[in-house]
Amino acid sequence: MKYLIILGCFFITTAAFSQDFKTDITTAKTAYASGKLEDAHFALLQAMQEVDIIIGKEVLKLLPAKMDTYEANTKDDNVMSNVGFIGSTIHRSYGANSEADLSIIGNSPLVSTLNAFLNTPLLGGMASNGNNKIIKY
Asked: For the stretch 9-36, what's the b/e string if a residue is b when 16 or more beta carbons lie within 10 angstroms of its beta carbon?
């Protein structure tokens, strides 16, 4: 099985956000104004997750419908957003039996740690089976 992992940071501005984003921002403002900082923090985290998901869906639209001879399995497309150290992940597979996988991981402190691990010849070499390709941009 072939894997392609892209590590990067997304700076995409979206003019129209979903209703959940607006609701979360309004909730955060209300909670902050009333001194409920924990509730404001939680509402902002929810809004940031919504932005990550919107960006992920837009990136999926830009991915190719075909990789080499493999067709995209769009029914298996997945966008995950995890606020904090994990960042966001966009996933698409190609081929009838998922012969090729594409995972795009948004920049985060955990990804930096992973990158350091993969760039260490001894550690990264032990984890590689020769079929993986990692690209940092």
From this structure: ebeeeeeeeeeebeebbebbeebeeeee
- The domain ranges of the chain are 2-136
118 in Cβ contact with 134 (< 8 Å): yes
Sign of CA dihedral 27, 28, 34, 37: positive
The pLDDT tens digits of the residues spanning 6-64 come to 444 333 333 334 458 889 999 999 999 999 999 999 998 888 888 888 888 999 999 99
- Which segments of the chain does DSSP mark as H helices, in order? 19-33, 37-62, 109-119, 121-127
